[in-house]
Amino acid sequence: MSSLDGSKTGFDSIATQDIPKPVPSRNAFDNALFTATAGIYAFGQKAKRAVNTAIAAVKDNTKEISHAVCEWAKLKVCQMWQWYRDNPKEAALILACIVIPIIVGTCWGPLLGAFGFTATGVVAGSIAAGIQAALGNVAAGSLFAILTSAAMGGYGVVIVSSIAWGVTSLVCSSLALAVWNVWRDKKKGEDGGEGDGYEMKDIKVV
Predict the structure, then answer these.
(1) Any transmembrane segments, and where (predicted)?
(2) How far apart are CA 110 and CA 107, in angstroms?
(3) Alpha-carbon distance 47 to 35, whole Å?
(4) Annotated domain spans of the chain
(5) In this prediction, what percent of the chain has a pLDDT beyond 90?
(6) Average pLDDT of 16-29?
(7) What's the pLDDT at 11?
């Protein structure tokens, strides 16, 4: 397709079969309408081919990236497994520091029940009942009220769960990090300060 001055337009690269065939016309309006329609159609075909090419390229790159990620994951798993085999006690302690916050954060209900906080209220003769008797009138928003609400499935559930998980995670993370640092310093001393090739990033701690 050429412009009015005879110069080539951007649509000359489009295959002729992609452009609708003209029909006999008796006025300039129909000719202009056909020209616009043909241009839009040709642009659409060109855009479609570009999109298909881009999709194919993304698929190829995704396969390569996936393969690289898998290889990296295998390497890290092997490093962690080797570290576990070389240091079973430290690994067990760090694993416990990961598991304990999860258990405490989700299983605090039975612990409250052991103290007398249940879904039906405070159990008579329990530790909770003794504390309640000593307090007298329990103020709204107090620790005792929050624990009672948590046991009964009220607003205290979110508060107790967050505190239980957050505190145990902080304590266990600090303990796990301290164990790691002690082990690392010990290994550096045994290896003459050269280290052992393990990095903190290879082991994830809660």
Answers:
(1) 91-115, 122-147, 153-180
(2) 6
(3) 18
(4) 1-86, 87-202
(5) 0
(6) 56
(7) 45
